[in-house]
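I hope you will forgive my troubling you with a question about protein structure. I set the record out below, with my sincere thanks for your time.
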Amino acid sequence: MSDDDVFDARGRVAGLSPAELVAVIDAAEESLAEAPLAALSEDGLLDLLESREQARRKGVGVDAAVFVEISDRGACRRAGYNTMHQLLTQGLRIGEGESRRRRVVAASIGRFTAMTGERLDSKFPVTAAAVAEGAIGETHVWVIEEVMDKIPTSVDPEARVKAEAMLADAARRLNPSGVTMVGNRILAHLDPDGTLADDEDRQRQAKFRLSAQDRQLMSAVQARLTPQLRAEFEVVFVQWAAPGMNNPDDPDSPHGAADQPGLDPAVLAAAAERDDRLLGRRQHDALLALLAWVNAQNTHARPESLRNQIVVTVTDEDLARHTGIAWTTTGTRIPVSDLVTIAADAVPYLAVFAKATGQPLYLGRAHRLASRAQRLALFARDRGCTAPGCTRPFTQCEMHHMPDWQDGGPTDADHLGGACGTHNRWNGKQPGTWESIVLTDGPDKGRVGWRPAGRAGPWIINPLFHPDKLRTGPDLPAEDRSPPPTVNHRLGETSERAGGLGVEAPRPDMPVAPARADTTGSGVERLLEQHLAA
C-alpha cells in the first residue's frame, strides 16, 4: 500500500472510520513513547514540542464534536447514564472540574443540532476556528467564555461579536492569563462605569459554594454575593459579630445579637475588653452561633426526616476516647472532640447492627416511607448516596427500595439504601437505567451494589463515604467491617426533648457489633483523606 492510498491531497489519513483513526492515534502514541528522542537535535526537540501541542489543541475540537454528537443523540444512556455530566464524571472518572471545563468548551465551540434538525453555528465561531487550527487550547476557550459571560446583556450584539473575535486573536498570541488581561480591558471599554450591568446579570453571577474539606477538615468558601445578600450579611455581622459577642473561647461571652432585650451593657463591655479575635474570626463565630440558633428553631420537618438535625456516625471507641473522625448526614467530617461539644446535652441513640454481618437488624414497616429509626440505621451503614461515584450526602438522599416499591419491594432496612433523587430514579430494565441490590455475600456484604441494566459484570459499590473500607492488603475480618453506631442530636434540644425521636435505646439482649479498630491515624487512612479531600 502506497502513501497515496493512505493520505489524501491535504495530507490527512483517508478511508478509515473514526474508531480506526483513534486506533491509529493510539498506536502512534505507543510508538512515539518508544521513539529515540535522544537522537533528535535541540531544534528538533523544540519542533516536536510545538507539533505535539498543536495536535493536542486540535484534539480539543474533536473532543467537543464527540461531546456534541453523544449529547444530541442521548447516547450516554447506552452506558447507563442520563446526562453527559454523569458519563464524564462517573463513566470516564475525569472529575467534577474537568467535566465542567469540557462541557463549557463544547458549548462554546461545538455545533449542536437544533430541534428542527439543522446544525447550529458555534457559539464562538472565531474561537472554534482557532481551535481547529491548533492555534489555541482548552484553557484559552475557558477564559474566553468567562470574559464573554461577564459582558452585560444590554451590550450591542455587534459589540459582543467583535469582542469574541478580539479575544480569539489575543489567544493566538498570549497565554490564558494574558487573554484574561485583554478581556478585562474589553469589559472596561464596554461598561466603563459599571452602569450597564442589571439585576439579571447579577443574579446570573451570584454563587455561594462550600469547597471540599482539606486535610485539616477546613473548608474554603467560593462566593460572589448580590448586593442584597451582602446587605443581609452586614446587618447580621453588626449585631452577632460585635466585639465580645458569641466568643467560643470565653465562657462568659453573651450569645445571640448585641441588641437583644435584657443584655446587660456592662457584661458586653467586659466581654469586649477580653475579646482578642480579629474581624474574620468574629464573623465566623457569628455565623456559627446564628446557624445553631436557626437550626434549633427548625422543628417543622417531616417526622421521619433527619434534615433538621445534626446526625453523625462514629465508633463507640472513638466517642469514649474523644478522638477520631465522625461523619454527618450532610457529608461533613467532624472531629469527635467537636462532636462531644455540640452533643453535650443530647441523649445518644445508637443504631444496632447484627454482629459480623454489617446489616442492620430488622426494622420493617408496613408502609412506603421509611421510619426515622430505619433512616438512622441506613445512615450509619451508607453515610451518603450509594450510587457509584455519587458525592451527595445522606441529607440529600431518599430511601431507595430494592426491588422498587411498585415491584413489590418491602420497606425493610435490608431492602433499602440511601440514594439521591437522581439515582433513586435510576432503577429499570431499559438502556440508561441501573439495577441495584443489597449484597448478601463477599467482602462488601451488607452494602448496596449497582450495575447498568442488562449488563453482566460485578456489582459496583460507592467507596467515597467509606474510605476506611479500601484496603491494599487482605480483607479484614467481617467484624472489623461492621458499620459504626449512630449518635443523634437535635440542636438546641434538652435531653428530655431529644427522647421524642422514636428510636428505642439498645436493650441488653440485643446484639451490638464490636467497635472497629481505630484506623484514623494509619498511613492508609491519611493517604485516602488526602485524595478524597483533593
